[in-house]
């Protein structure tokens, strides 16, 4: 059994071929898709966060709206770039969204990826400390967030407050118990997966990772997952870790499917550079008839290792089509693999 959800980047464009023309379209369609996915029996609705781009960038209003309109489905991010975040304010927003959803928030965070502008986090008022890199800054922001989410008081109360205070040091509010245990780290390397395990964060592994050894993408990703789980056990955490992987999977069951994705049959891994110094390997797109897809996916070692599979959806093709994409996997592919 696997949890199966979707991951949307929330693109919008005024192109004639896009059914998501504006930011309003992207947000409202994201809510509609989450509701439709829950009705289908999917397990999660996740959203990517990018700044300075025509994509979803402010996740907590969206997650709160989805939480209010759904009852069962997990809602989350994959991922929030911690270089841009004030961890105190983020703890308040995340706590509110989690309470609205009844404790269904699965918050994916990370050190971020190359952005649309140079050092965009500087425009948000952040810069690394002396001797630190931007990755160090992101991890420090994450560590503060994790500490604050534990819910322990740390702030000295005013002796003459506007409203009466509870006794002792104060914490940020609202606090949502259990949210600290539902934080995920988007790791692109084995070393950062180990760091995430030591922090007690679940592992979110995407459709790319640092190329560490030249093996096929799914083999490298499976090794990353095993490395993470070993580090988790060594850290002594009593709760079970979770691991998600993201995949582009399109079952060809209609003429429209074949028109959109038929040419992607036979897709393969490819290698590129996400910055001047980082060679990355990008996973393939899985596109085939359902029976062939089941055979191909059964050989994906990383999917076998993970407990959660996130389907990357082409959101600009509209809610109806993306509902069809998710339904195809749940109905025609997952049962053949024992996931349902």
UniProtKB/TrEMBL annotation:
Keyword Ribosomal protein: no
Positions of the Luciferase-like domain: 9-251
GO molecular function: monooxygenase activity; oxidoreductase activity, acting on paired donors, with incorporation or reduction of molecular oxygen
InterPro entries, alphabetized: Bact_Lucif_Oxidored, Luciferase-like_dom, Luciferase-like_sf
GO cellular component: cytosol
Keywords: Monooxygenase, Oxidoreductase
Protein name: Alkanesulfonate monooxygenase SsuD/methylene tetrahydromethanopterin reductase-like flavin-dependent oxidoreductase (Luciferase family)
